[in-house]
Structure formats: structure tokens, C-alpha cells
Design a protein that fits this description.
The complex is a heterodimer of chains A (about 180) and B (about 300). Chain A is mainly alpha-helical and about 180 residues long. Chain A has ten helices and no strands. Chain A starts with 7 loop residues before the first helix and ends in a 7-residue tail after the last helix. In chain B, helix 2 crosses helix 12 and helix 10 crosses helix 11. Chain B is globular, with a radius of gyration of 19 Å. Classes of the chains: A mainly alpha (about 180), B alpha/beta (about 300).
């Protein structure tokens, strides 16, 4: 299980590589005051503890990127707005998630969204039920969006391949 | 009457694909206000600031840049109905303007599909256009019949935050959306934790549904306790969370809340005397008929 626990060096390197330097640096200012945890809508009902996550990130001890805690933040930005040290908490959490995904920790439901995104150009593609609703409302049955314009979809898929996002989410081009 | 207002209309996913009533009401209300909306042909998912950005920030930025580049080609500012799309397009626009290295990298890739990012396009929310570009005084003049309901106004998170990139600086206790329902004859009721997240965003709804619904339930119960007759929101994702979420909450825990969920342009449409049917109000999961009958 060792590989899921990041060391301080790893976290620091990844944070500085993935996030803007000012974002990564802001974390050093943490006072552990706990305004973040107190403001968190998720923390009220889940085990998510923002202050602890920042502390663990900073110390690099015991931060287990495999634990789903990392995925309990709704990115509402309340903690970041109220932080007296202006730490870009949400950007840091997003970066930690990026690292987790790079190491292959993507929950199956999220994998499905990525498949939709690559296949249709939409995280939530249009279905038949809503085609019918659209028609009833006098809207075009198919919106003028990427899902229905082959050339546009090809562009998105080209960009996905360029950044190898398809490999990251194990997208099967043939299926 | 000044210059004709024109924008490119960014649809995103949830409005056109799950709650087309939100798209239809926006188109109809904007047309009444003589605001022209130009479709963004070939636009994709924004991509979401919760899911895709959490997985890979680089692909998130690149695909957002493609959407911004489509608007650039049309030479018009963007208007979007969704807080999530607003967050992504605004943030990506900012990053690409400020960070030359990222901008160059993105432009190298975009050039291969014939697009480029220049940073001249503004990204606006439907509510921002109505509040600032149309203005509340002008909006009042379009009210044909008042909708005297007790409503629970719900701003959602990304309309207001991060505040450094938003025109409203007050994210703790804003009033503008309350004002916008009050001019339609409605009463905005106060309720507990009004400014707290609906629980859908940040990949939580898609990943850990139970936790997400518990957050929604807290909000819904507080609205009900304040004796609201409906929710008025400004984001299709909050809309889905509250509307379909009520059904899911009833299935999971047996709690029936039955609070109609209305998007702002649907309420505005009612006040403009448009038919609730053409505004798509009856297409929600939670029945709105009894609510509408009152007016």
C-alpha cells in the first residue's frame, strides 16, 4: 500500500509541476486555524477535513490519495474565500486529485463520465427522452453542439489524443 | 433603446440535454428582451470544473480554450446558463490571458485544428446579462403579471466564487438575485444555510451520490421549514440536484419534500405572461402543476 502514500518530496514536486507556482507556494502560509473545515458544507456530513488535508499535504505524511476523502470536496470555494492566508485551497485539492488520477485512482463512475466526454464531446450527452422534450418545446431536436457535428467531434478527439487523456482513462476507441 | 445586444450562446450539457426547459425559457425571454443569441456551432462540454478538471487540468484547459476560440471566431461575448460552465470558461479565460507559457502551448495545439485563443472575449452568466447589461429597471417594464410566491432563492457556488473573477464581490450575503425575484412580485424567503453548496459539484454527485444528496437534503429541508413554495435557481446542475435529487432522496430515505424547482428565466417568463408549457416548467421530475395553478 506504500505507493498510495505520497512523501513530502513527491507532493511538493507534483504540486509545483501541476499547479501555478503562486498556488503551490500559498500552502506554506497555513496557520491551521481551521476556518476551512468550519466553512465546509461537505465536512458537516462527511469525514472530509480540509484543515487536516492541507496539513497532511504540507507534511507529506499519511496522505493517502487512494482514500475517497479527496473526492468529497464540492469545490464550492467557501474555504478558499475565507482563508485568512489566501491559500488557494480548491486549486490545491484539484491538483491532488490530478495526482491521484495519474497514479490510476479513478472511481468507476468518474471513468464513465470521461468515456462520455471523449465519445460524445459531452460529460452528459443527449438521450432520446430529451430529444422528445426538446421537440415539444420547439427547440431543435439536436442542439448545434459537438455531439451531432462529426467534424467538431474529430477536433476534440484529436486534442484528447494529443494530451494522451484517452490513455489515462483507458478509453477504448474501437468499442 | 441602445444598441442591439448580441451574444454567442454557450449551451453546455445539462441545459440542452437534461433540462431543455431552461434553454427554451432563456431563448424565449431573451428574444422578448430583443437580445440576439448566436449559436456556437460545434461547441463541446465546457469541460466541468469538478469532474474533468479534477482528473486532468491540462485537457480541461485545452478543451475550454477550444470553446473560447469558437466564440472568438464569432467575435461576440459568451453567455451561459450554467454556473459550472461559467466557472470553467471564466477561469480558463483568465489562466490563458495571464500565463503566456500555457497560452502558447494551447495555441500550438489549437492551430492544428484551425483555432486560436486571443483573450478578447468576455464570459457572462445569463443572470449577469440580465442584471448588468439589461438592468433591473428595464427588466421591471417587461413584467406583465406578478408571480406572488414565496420563493427560496438559490445562487449556487460558482456564480459568486471565486470572487476575484466575478462582477459581484459579495459572496457571503449577496442580494441581487433576491432583488431579481422581488421585481417579479415574488417574496424571497430567508432560510438556513442559504449560501451553502447544493452538494452536486466537484465530482461529488457523480462519485459519491449519498454524501451529495445529504447536502441537498439539508438545503431542501431548510427551504421547506421557511415555508417556501418553490426554489428559484440559476444553474442546471443545482436544478438537477434539487429536482431529481428530491426523487432520489424519497427513494433512498423515504423523505418526501415536494418542492417545485424553477430556473430564473422560467419565473421571468411566467411574469412576462409566457405559457408555463412552452417554458418547460412541467418537464421537471417534481410536479409543478399545483404551484402554477395559483397564478
Amino acid at each position: 500500500m506504500r505507493e498510495n502514500k505520497l512523501t513530502f518530496k513527491e507532493i511538493k514536486e507534483e504540486l509545483f509541476r501541476k499547479a501555478e507556482e503562486t498556488v503551490a507556494k500559498s500552502i506554506y502560509g497555513c496557520l491551521q486555524c481551521g476556518v476551512c473545515s468550519a466553512s465546509c458544507p461537505s465536512g458537516r456530513i462527511t469525514p472530509f477535513r480540509t484543515r487536516l488535508l492541507i496539513r497532511k499535504t504540507l507534511l507529506g505524511v499519511g496522505l493517502d490519495i487512494k482514500k475517497e476523502d479527496l473526492w468529497l470536496c464540492t469545490t464550492c470555494y467557501t474555504c478558499q474565500e475565507r482563508c485568512p492566508k489566501r491559500i488557494e485551497i480548491v486549486s490545491i485539492i484539484i491538483t491532488l486529485r490530478n495526482i491521484a488520477v495519474e497514479k490510476g485512482n479513478l472511481i468507476p463512475e468518474h471513468l464513465k463520465i470521461c468515456q462520455n466526454f471523449i465519445r460524445y464531446g459531452h460529460a452528459v450527452p443527449l438521450d432520446n427522452e430529451n430529444k422528445e422534450k426538446r421537440t415539444k418545446l420547439g427547440l431543435a431536436k439536436n442542439p448545434p453542439a459537438i455531439q451531432f457535428i462529426a467534424e467538431a467531434l474529430k477536433q476534440l478527439q484529436f486534442l484528447v489524443k494529443k494530451l494522451e487523456f484517452d490513455k489515462k482513462v483507458e478509453f477504448g476507441w474501437d468499442s | 433603446m441602445g444598441q442591439l445586444m448580441r451574444y454567442t450562446f454557450y449551451l453546455g450539457c445539462l441545459a440542452p440535454n437534461r433540462y431543455p426547459g431552461i434553454e427554451a425559457s432563456t431563448r424565449k425571454v431573451f428574444s422578448k428582451l430583443s437580445i440576439e443569441l448566436i449559436d456556437m456551432r460545434g461547441a463541446s462540454c465546457c469541460p466541468p470544473p469538478g469532474v474533468i478538471r479534477s482528473f486532468d487540468t491540462d485537457i480541461w484547459l485545452l478543451i475550454a480554450a477550444r470553446n473560447l476560440a469558437i466564440a472568438k471566431r464569432l467575435g461576440l461575448d459568451i453567455v451561459t446558463m450554467c454556473n459550472g460552465c461559467y466557472a470553467t470558461l471564466k477561469e480558463a479565460n483568465y489562466i490563458l490571458r495571464m500565463n503566456e507559457e500555457k497560452r502558447n502551448h494551447v495555441n500550438d495545439l489549437l492551430s492544428e485544428i484551425g483555432y486560436s485563443f486571443a483573450g478578447k472575449i468576455k464570459v457572462k452568466h445569463v443572470i449577469e446579462v440580465l442584471y448588468f447589461d439589461v438592468g433591473i429597471e428595464k427588466l421591471k417594464k417587461y413584467v406583465k403579471r406578478e408571480v406572488p410566491a414565496r420563493v427560496a432563492v438559490f445562487y449556487g457556488c460558482h456564480l459568486l466564487k471565486p470572487s476575484r473573477l466575478r462582477p459581484w464581490k459579495d459572496f457571503e450575503r449577496p442580494r441581487f438575485l433576491d432583488e431579481m425575484v422581488e421585481i417579479l412580485g415574488a417574496e424571497s424567503v430567508d432560510y438556513e444555510h442559504k449560501m451553502m453548496c447544493c452538494g452536486a459539484g466537484g465530482a461529488v454527485r457523480s462519485g459519491i451520490l449519498e454524501a451529495s444528496l445529504q447536502m441537498a437534503q439539508q438545503r431542501l429541508r431548510a427551504m421547506k421549514e421557511a415555508e417556501a413554495e418553490c426554489i428559484v435557481d440559476v444553474c442546471p446542475f443545482c436544478h438537477l440536484q434539487f429536482d431529481r435529487g428530491q426523487y432520489e432522496i424519497a427513494q433512498k430515505w423515504g423523505h418526501e419534500i415536494n418542492l417545485p424547482v424553477i430556473y430564473y428565466t422560467q419565473l421571468l417568463g411566467l411574469a412576462m405572461d409566457l405559457n408555463p408549457q412552452e417554458l418547460g416548467i412541467y418537464m421537471n421530475v417534481i410536479d409543478c402543476k399545483d404551484f402554477i395553478k395559483r397564478f
